[in-house]
Amino acid sequence: MTLEFLEKIDTEKIFTKKDKHKADIFSSNDKTSVVEDKDNNSESSNDVLIQIFDISKVDRPHIVDLCSTKKSVLPRALENVPLISPSINYLSYFIQVLQHLILTIIFDWTAIITHPVNFLLTFVFFPTSAIILFFLEIILRFISFLNLDSNNETVLQSWSKLIPLTELLANLRSGMESLDQHPTSDIHKGFNLDRTQFLLFLSTIMYERNEKQVIKAYRMISKMKKDINNKSDEDLQTVYKILKESEKNIRDQIKDFDLQFTSLSELNTLGGPYVGMFWSEERNFITIACKGTTPTNFSEWLTNASFQRTDARAFLFGEVHQGFYSQLFPINDYESAKLDRNCPATRIIKAVNQKSEEIRNKNMEKNNIKLKDTPLVNIYVTGHSLGGALANLLYGRLLKYPRCLGEHCILRDGTTFASPSIGDSDFAAEFSSLCNRSIEEYKTLWRIVCDSDIVPRVPIGHNNPKLRRYTQKIHIMNYFHVGDEIRFYQDGTRPSSMRDIFSDNKELLFLEHGLGWNEWKSLFGLYDPLDDKKHHIKSSFDPRYNTSLIPIERLLLPFIRNHMTHRYLAALEKSRKFFNNNIVVKGGDNIV
Fold first, then answer.
1. What is the gyration radius of the CA atoms in the chain, in angstroms?
2. Where exactly are the transmembrane stretches of this chain (predicted)?
3. For range 435-447, the mean pLDDT
4. What is the pLDDT of residue 116?
């Protein structure tokens, strides 16, 4: 039986020789498959077989995705030469910026008259960003050289310096159990603090994968594609073992939770962001997690700095940040047709669909009930920083086409941390429309922000829904956030949100209309709707929550320091008293 996730294998050229061989992969059970290479120009039976033993079905999509990952532009001999690789990446980024400025003039040469402010911002903003990134590259290399960003402890070991380990584990297990809840459950359907901490934990350990081993596996599988006739099943087994070894740090940290993990997609890059999947054989949920920006990875900063937007209507809606969009989807219709729509996002969804079917069938057999009486598998999406932006896009895709998940699972909440803005006013409006189709669905994208974290304020945009009607499509600052923001504070202040996060009420609590005086700052990208909504109620907290966990932390400014995942954990924990005591806001306050 042909494996579903290897459809159109000829297009992806997996284990094939160009114009000479075709490959078909068959599976007789969940742990055996065969790669068969046939010569089109001969009728002989001289077939090349590569058998895949002991590779579970859930791990195969990652191998397929790795085969589809684009080759580096640099020769291997130059990849490890200091400053060469980031310099080439910077040059590529600079060329893109230059092309954007030239095309802006060619296609809208009257912009200097018709849109003078936007024209000025475009020709100041992009060159300035390129210069800043040049110096950022030098700073990141210096930090990496001095090893100031290192921390050899596991996530739980580090976090236990902030919260006692027994208490931390209890909170995380409570959050994991909440992922099992049925959508119609009477248990709290709104924001869940323990669940948020658990998803933050999963988003954090995504940074623990050994990227060097993934690159090693990629090089091996690339050689197999070039010389398929001289390769055997042992070669593919070696690739598989290397990929599993790269995930060892992640699996070691989740084994106490009876969780399993596999990588799903490299997102068209190597050593950068990627997407993985967490699940448990004993529970009824799958969590799709996207890895965020590694602080000293210059290539990932370039992805963040690709401020140009691209037309996203082929897979989403509106216009979306080009750097984020290109990680998940083809950036134009030609590539979409060329890849037969088998982009990273499609492969991720297929893998989740396949695993959810397996989990649901096991639950049916275990409970000895009919399939129709077996609860659907809950699907959650999460990520931090760049991973949060990718998670937002993936969540938007699932909102637009919920049927692509199949009949065995149901989309639940998305929870992202430190996510930057990802789309224009049209994207944000359509996203909100899909989230609000039914008040009973309880599908919410929770966008968590830690106090003064700078990343949620970039790319610089208006970020005020009241300005959507005035924003023109081509404006460089036409960026708006999606989802329900909840801001947590480092001084113990009650969290701020546009919704009542202390009950099941989904009604918006912003009652005022018109543009307030302070909101005029949003014209210049200097305003967030919650900036002037900070509550006056504070709670006391354990001083250990402010403990620094890495050497460089005390040297960083607050708006950079608050971007770290453990600072998010501390801010969440400082608010626990408000959730446990269910304190009600009294008086004329219109925000919680």
1. 24
2. 119-140
3. 75
4. 75
Buried b (16+ CB within 10 A) or exposed e, 4-43: ebbeebeebebbbbeeebebebebeeeeebbbbbbbeeee
Alpha-carbon 277 to chain mean position: 11
Can you give 165-228 as a three-state secondary structure string?
HHHHHHHHHHHHHHCCCCCCCCCCCCCCHHHHHHHHHHHHHHHHCCHHHHHHHHHHHHHHHHCH
Q: CB 531: neighbour CB atoms within 10 A?
A: 15
Higher pLDDT, 445 or 22: 445
Q: Looking at residues 444-452, what average pLDDT do you find?
A: 93
At residue 149, the pLDDT reads: 55
Q: Exposed, middle or buried: residue 403 (CB in 10 Å: 0-12, 13-18, 19+)?
A: exposed
Contact between 39 and 17 (Cβ < 8 Å)? no
What integer pLDDT is reported at residue 439 of this predicted model? 56
User: In one letter, which amino acid is 176?
Assistant: M
What does the pLDDT look like over 409-427, one tens digit per residue? Answer: 999 999 999 999 999 989 9
Rounded to whole angstroms, the Cα distance separating 439 from 345 reads 27
> Which strands sit side by side in the sheet containing 21-29, from one edge to the other?
21-29, 32-39, 48-53
Q: In b/e form, how buried is each residue of 486-517, taking b as 16+ CB within 10 angstroms?
A: bbbbbebbbbbbbbbbbeeebeebeeeeeeee
560-584 pLDDT, tens digit per residue, is: 889 999 999 999 999 998 888 544 3
Residues 6+ apart with CB under 8 A from 220: 235, 238, 239, 242
Give the DSSP letter string of 529-551. TTTT---S-B----GGGG---ST
Residue ranges in 34-164 assigned as alpha helix (H) = 60-68, 76-79, 84-107, 111-114, 116-146, 155-159
Nearest alpha carbon to residue 321 among 264, 390, 235: 390
Taking the mean position of all CA atoms in its chain, how far away is CA 328?
10
Which domains does the chain possess?
81-146 (no CATH), 153-206+257-503+513-576 (3.40.50.1820)
Cis peptide before 465 (omega within 30 of 0): no
* Alpha carbons 26 and 9: distance in angstroms, whole number: 12
**Quick one: pLDDT at residue 189?**
54
pLDDT at 147: 61
* Structure tokens given for 57: 């079905």
The answer to whether 547 and 158 have CB atoms below 8 angstroms apart is no
Largest interatomic CA distance in the chain: 85
Lowest mean pLDDT among 96-105, 149-158, 357-366: 96-105
Residues 237 and 47: their CA atoms lie apart, in Å, by 20
Structure tokens at 400: 């637009």
Using alpha carbons only, give the angle 487, 489, 492 rounded to the nearest 5 degrees: 135
Q: Could you give the percent of the chain with pLDDT greater than 70?
A: 66
**Mean pLDDT lowest among 34-48, 52-66, 157-171, 442-456:** 34-48
Task: Identify which of 65-79, 84-98, 139-153, 314-328 has the greatest average pLDDT.
Answer: 314-328
Query: Per the structure block, which two tokens stand in for 183?
Result: 């959508």
